[in-house]
Amino acid sequence: MRSIALSYGRGHIDIELPAGVRPTIVRKQQLPKLPDQQAAVIASFDAPVASATLAELARGRKSACILICDITRPVPNKLFLRPMIETMWSSGIPKDKIVVLVATGLHRPNLGDELAELVGDPWVLDNVRVENHYARDDAAHIDLGVTKTRSTPVKLDRLFVEADLRIATGLVEPHFMAGWSGGRKVIAPGVAHHETIRTFHSARFMEDPLAVQCNLIGNPLHEEQLEIVRMLGEVYAVNTVLDEVRDLVCVTFGEIIASHQAAVDFVSGVTQIPLNRKFSTVVTSSAGYPLDKTYYQTIKGMVTPLDILKPGGTLIIASECSEGFGSAEFREAQARLVDLGPDRFLATLTAKTLAEIDEWQTEMQLKPMRLGKVELYTTGLSGDDRRLTGVGMIDDLSGAIARSITAGGDPDVAIIPEGPYVVPRYAA
């Protein structure tokens, strides 16, 4: 095996492996294909988890709000939005009382052609209202108080809170802080006010050793999200699981916590891959489009494989960064990291109750930097952006692998083509 394809942009990038390399390819276990993906979605509405059917839930409701993830998540919205809306209509919810709300968190809005790509079905845009969430618009949120456990301020988008029927939709995949994405996470931070989001992303949460991928037990982010759901009240969810080629392989519908857990149970065993050794060289990706649109999102791919990286080893990541760096706030945080160094940068975070917007992603980059060396291959960054990554920049993946092998004296290389959607575990 001399050539390996990594997810990159809307396709793949091929790596020619140097002579003498012993590659270990880390992939999710193969999942059986659904014979009819949209039929599976519709069937889930009639076989819910811990709730009535969608048609029964919609009956007698005056309004509905459906949350969808923003463009950074490859959720198959085109498979479920229209049948969901048609079910609501047939159950009596008026067309003008249904809104689809893009759960942007603190990301930028999705507009124009990008919104059309995200929704995936022009029929939806033609027939119901589609809006973006704006976390910095104070008037667009309702204050529900604070959580009992950690006093997190809970302010959520008014469109969702005031809807008679509330449904979150999303993709269940490993998340490097919240354990698993989807479900409750689409509400908070998805449609939360910036104060709620910035509390979640403060060092008090981010530095907790249980706030890691694939862990929900004792995870402070997950626990706060569950409490927020309880404060909000009745909420339902559509949870999807995709395979490596982005085909739908599992869908659950029902009460938000129970249906999300059912999807986690389905995907957990096939996503976490046990390995009996650690590696001096780990090669990964940012999972391709849409996750590798920015350097901001690329950091997720740096954190996920750390369990199998030897201390002092080299983590090599490929990410297109087709939209460049990320937000102005993230850029400012990266500039502080480069100027101050990792230790002094972290010291500026620990006393804050509210994190500065997007500096939490820079904080997460400290994790691979503490363990070893990080090198980035990208065609989307230039000029000062490359310096502000704070990591080594490479233009030749094969050459970087060869140098790492020489430096580590170890020809065994772990290669993770799908990046953060796969979680390797050191099982020895």
Overall description:
- It is a single chain.
- The protein has 428 residues and is α/β, with parallel strands linked by helices.
- It has helices spanning 37-46, 54-58, 77-90, 112-119, 122-127, 158-161, 194-200, 203-206, 220-232, 256-271, 295-303, 328-340, 342-347, 359-371, 384-388, 397-408, and strands at 3-8, 11-16, 22-25, 64-69, 98-103, 129-132, 141-146, 153-157, 165-171, 174-175, 179-180, 236-242, 248-255, 272-275, 279-285, 309-318, 373-377, 392-394, 412-416, 423-426.
- The strands form six sheets. It has a six-stranded parallel β-sheet, sandwiched between helices. A six-stranded mixed β-sheet has the order 6-5-4-9-12-13, sandwiched between helices.
- Strand 15, helix 11 (295-303) and strand 16 form a beta-alpha-beta unit.
- It is globular, with a radius of gyration of 21 Å.
- The mean pLDDT is 96.
Structural class: alpha/beta
What value does the Rg take, in angstroms?
21 Å
| Distance between the first and last residues' Cα | 26 Å
The helicity comes to: 25-40%
Shape: globular
The biggest beta sheet reads: 6 strands, parallel
Q: What percent strand?
A: 25-35%
- As an assembly, this protein is single chain
Summarize the structure.
It is built from 16 helices and 20 strands. It is α/β, with parallel strands linked by helices and 428 residues long.
Give the topology.
Layout: E1 3-8, E2 11-16, E3 22-25, H1 37-46, H2 54-58, E4 64-69, H3 77-90, E5 98-103, H4 112-119, H5 122-127, E6 129-132, E7 141-146, E8 153-157, H6 158-161, E9 165-171, E10 174-175, E11 179-180, H7 194-200, H8 203-206, H9 220-232, E12 236-242, E13 248-255, H10 256-271, E14 272-275, E15 279-285, H11 295-303, E16 309-318, H12 328-340, H13 342-347, H14 359-371, E17 373-377, H15 384-388, E18 392-394, H16 397-408, E19 412-416, E20 423-426
Parallel strand pairs: 3-19, 4-5, 4-9, 5-6, 9-12, 14-20, 15-16, 15-19, 16-17, 17-18
Antiparallel strand pairs: 1-2, 7-8, 10-11, 12-13
Helix pairs in contact: 1-3, 11-14
